[in-house]
Structure formats: structure tokens, C-alpha cells
């Protein structure tokens, strides 16, 4: 670390223009940076490097005109940014601003490192705000728009991951809308990388919390391919966020039509059998939302009631539906004019009655008489 803290002149002058003594300093800087890049993969070494004062030195070196030096430092930061203490320092020392500029680098590796660091640093609202204000979100969207980048799996995963984290801030969702980002994200749903798809669907789950973006997703022909992911993948994070997108979109009547016409209800129901409590609980919540947003469609009401009743064959699902307050909306179907609906509601209520709390709720809803 000591040998890396070279005079500013060394960093601002092309190597061939440096005096002999400073060329030796530059050569030593490159060798030390390259060595620490390799050593920084160890958590123990990261701690020693931090205690040795590497953070302000890295901030200084990031401004160098020497691309190889910047490349080594970026490699070190990629390794170190997994630790909260380094992420805080990256922000406080102003390094994040310099790193965001490198999202526009013509070098794929440099761009990939910048996207990876941005992904790691976008952990808190303040950092996500800074990324937006420095044009980072625009740069990330521009990266994933480039057709030739789609074969760069690491770059695409890092960039879409950073976009997803940034969208946890509502202001960043607004910025994405302004640059037509939802259409860009929809085009990534056919990626060969499950990590890219997972980040993309998670991003769309954040976007569709806002009403106008449900319409935008449908207008971009994005909802149907998202629904179909429920039968095309076993990736837990994808399945969870697909359910969240469907849950968010269920309040839009035209989105609801697409869910129904593309077998979305059955597919969400099938997730209740998936070997993941997170997938099951998210799917359960989505089924309840779909139930609450059905109007006068008797076939749909019957199908949903049957799905909930079937899910209750697993005792834990019975408790889950109780926590999600499914009893009240499904109880209303008992007065349906459709015999098929009434039969399936009875089946669902029978399943829900396996939980004592649900029985109390049924009585208060007037089901028992």
C-alpha cells in the first residue's frame, strides 16, 4: 500500500513522458496494484489492506490517466465492495462518482467492474439516490440496451442487478419511466441467463407497484412472457418475483384478463406445491389478490376457490391463507347464483376450516348460518 501512494504527477502524466525515477515508481505502482488485486480476494487481507490505509490511496488512483492502474484498482474495489465498511468508504471518499463514470467505458471488463461495484453499493437509499443523480441509472439502462452486450453474461447480470437495487427507490422508478426503461427490461426476459431474468423480473416487480407501470408493462407485451416463466423455470427468485408482478398487476382489469387467458391462475396455484416456503407464501398472497380482484366471472371464481381449497390440503397453506385474510373475500362467493361456484367455495371453506382462526372468521362473515 505504501508503494502505491505515488505523487500526483505520476498519475497525471503518460508513462513514456515520465522521468526515469518516476517511471520506476510507476512500474512499482503497477506491480503492487496487481498483487493486491489478487490478494484482495481474501477477507483477512481486505481487513489488513484497510488498516494499512488503502482506501484514500484507491480514491487517488482512480483519477489516474493510466488505464492499467485504474483497471487494477477497480479489480481491488470489486473484491472489497462485498464488505459494508468498504462500501461506506467508497461513497464517503467520493469513489462512487468516479466509478459511475466508468459505466460508459468502451472496455467491457472495466464496464463490468463498474456495474458490479454499483450493484454492491446500491444497498441503501442514499447510495441509490446518488447513483441516479450522477446519471448511473441511465448508464446502466444504456448498457443493457446494447445488442452486443447480451452475450456478456457477467456484465448483463451485474447491470440488471444494479438496476433492480436502484429501483427500490421510487424516485429511480420515475427516472426509469422517463427513459422508457420498462420496454428495455421486457426485451431481456428471453435472456439465456437466469440471473439476468431474475434481476429483470425483480425490477419489474418494483416498477409495477405503481399503477401506470402496470399499463406500461402490458403495453410492452411484457406480462404474458412473465406469466409463462412459471412453467419454464425452477429458479426460486424468478418464481417469487413473477408472483409479485402478477400480484401487482391484478388490480388492472386488462392485466387480469391476460392472467386468466394465459392460465396464470393455475400456474400461480401450482407454485403452492413448490419446494420453497418463500415461493409458496408469495404464491398464496398472489392467489388472494387474484381472488379479491375477480368480479362477476363465475368460471374464474370457481377456479380460484378450487385452487385455494386444493392448496389447503397441505396444512401449512391453510394457516398461510388465514394470515392473508382470504376468508372474507371467498365467503362472499357462497351467495353466488352459480352452483359450480358454490360447490367450489364450500370445498375451499372446508379446507380453510382446518385452522381455528379461520373458523372464527367464517362465523363472523355469516358463513355458518
Give an overview of the whole structure.
This is Armadillo repeat-containing protein 4. With 369 residues, this protein is an all-alpha fold. The chain has three domains: 1-134, Leucine-rich Repeat Variant (Alpha Horseshoe); 151-267, Leucine-rich Repeat Variant; 294-368, no CATH class. It has helices at residues 8-12, 20-39, 43-51, 54-61, 67-80, 84-92, 95-101, 108-121, 125-133, 136-145, 153-166, 170-178, 181-186, 194-207, 211-219, 223-232, 236-249, 253-261, 264-270, 277-292, 298-311, 315-323, 327-331, 339-352, 356-364. Helix 2 packs parallel to helix 5 (67-80), helix 5 packs parallel to helix 8 (108-121) and helix 21 (298-311) packs parallel to helix 24. The longest helix is centred in the first third of the chain and has 20 residues, at 20-39. The radius of gyration is 26 Å and the shape is elongated.
Strand and helix map with partners:
Elements: H1 8-12, H2 20-39, H3 43-51, H4 54-61, H5 67-80, H6 84-92, H7 95-101, H8 108-121, H9 125-133, H10 136-145, H11 153-166, H12 170-178, H13 181-186, H14 194-207, H15 211-219, H16 223-232, H17 236-249, H18 253-261, H19 264-270, H20 277-292, H21 298-311, H22 315-323, H23 327-331, H24 339-352, H25 356-364
Fraction of helical residues: over 70%
Number of domains: 3
- The CATH class designation of the largest domain is Mainly Alpha
Largest sheet: none
- How does CATH name the architecture of the largest domain? Alpha Horseshoe
Looking at CATH, the homologous superfamily of the largest domain is Leucine-rich Repeat Variant
Task: Tell me the fraction of residues in β-strands, as a range.
Answer: under 5%
Work out the helix count.
25
Which runs of at least 5 residues are low in confidence (pLDDT < 50)?
none
Secondary-structure element sequence? HHHHHHHHHHHHHHHHHHHHHHHHH
Q: Please give the number of β-strands.
A: 0
Report mean pLDDT, rounded to a whole number.
92
User: Which fold does the CATH topology of the largest domain refer to?
Assistant: Leucine-rich Repeat Variant
Protein name: Armadillo repeat-containing protein 4
Organism: Schizaphis graminum (Green bug aphid)
InterPro entries: ARM-like (IPR011989), ARM-type_fold (IPR016024), Armadillo (IPR000225)
Amino acid at each position: 500500500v505504501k508503494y502505491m501512494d505515488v505523487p500526483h504527477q505520476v498519475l497525471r502524466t503518460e508513462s513514456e513522458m515520465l522521468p526515469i525515477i518516476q517511471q520506476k515508481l510507476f512500474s512499482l505502482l503497477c506491480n503492487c496494484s496487481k498483487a493486491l488485486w489478487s490478494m484482495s480476494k481474501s477477507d483477512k487481507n481486505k481487513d489488513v489492506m484497510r488498516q494499512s490505509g488503502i482506501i484514500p490511496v484507491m480514491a487517488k488512483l482512480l483519477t489516474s490517466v493510466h488505464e492499467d492502474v485504474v483497471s487494477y484498482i477497480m479489480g481491488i474495489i470489486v473484491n472489497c465492495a462485498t464488505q459494508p465498511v468498504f462500501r461506506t468508504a467508497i461513497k464517503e471518499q467520493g469513489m462512487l462518482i468516479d466509478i459511475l463514470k466508468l459505466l460508459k467505458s468502451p472496455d467491457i471488463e472495466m464496464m463490468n467492474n463498474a456495474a458490479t461495484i454499483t450493484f454492491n453499493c446500491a444497498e441503501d437509499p442514499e447510495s441509490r439516490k446518488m447513483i441516479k443523480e450522477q446519471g448511473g441509472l441511465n448508464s446502466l439502462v444504456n448498457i443493457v440496451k446494447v445488442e452486443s452486450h447480451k452475450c456478456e453474461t457477467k456484465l448483463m447480470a451485474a447491470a440488471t442487478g444494479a438496476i433492480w437495487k436502484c429501483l427500490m427507490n421510487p424516485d429511480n422508478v420515475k427516472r426509469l419511466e422517463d427513459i422508457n426503461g420498462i420496454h428495455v427490461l421486457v426485451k431481456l426476459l428471453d435472456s439465456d441467463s437466469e440471473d439476468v431474468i431474475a434481476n429483470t423480473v425483480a425490477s419489474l416487480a418494483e416498477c409495477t407497484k405503481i399503477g401506470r407501470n402496470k399499463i406500461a408493462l402490458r403495453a410492452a407485451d411484457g406480462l404474458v412472457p412473465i406469466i409463462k416463466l412459471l412453467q419454464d423455470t425452477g429458479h426460486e427468485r424468478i418464481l417469487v418475483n413473477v408472483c409479485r408482478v402478477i400480484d401487482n398487476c391484478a388490480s388492472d382489469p386488462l392485466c387480469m384478463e391476460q392472467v386468466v387467458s394465459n392460465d396464470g391462475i393455475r400456474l400461480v396455484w401450482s407454485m403452492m406445491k413448490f419446494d420453497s416456503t418463500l415461493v409458496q407464501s408469495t404464491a398464496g398472497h398472489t392467489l388472494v389478490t387474484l381472488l379479491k380482484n375477480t368480479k362477476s366471472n363465475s368460471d374464474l371464481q370457481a377456479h380460484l376457490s378450487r385452487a385455494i381449497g386444493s392448496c389447503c390440503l397441505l396444512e401449512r397453506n391453510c394457516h398461510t391463507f388465514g394470515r392473508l385474510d382470504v376468508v372474507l373475500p371467498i365467503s362472499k362467493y357462497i351467495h353466488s347464483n352459480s352452483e359450480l361456484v358454490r360447490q367450489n367455495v364450500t370445498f375451499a371453506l372446508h379446507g380453510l376450516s382446518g385452522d381455528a382462526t379461520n373458523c372464527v372468521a367464517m362465523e363472523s362473515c355469516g358463513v355458518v348460518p
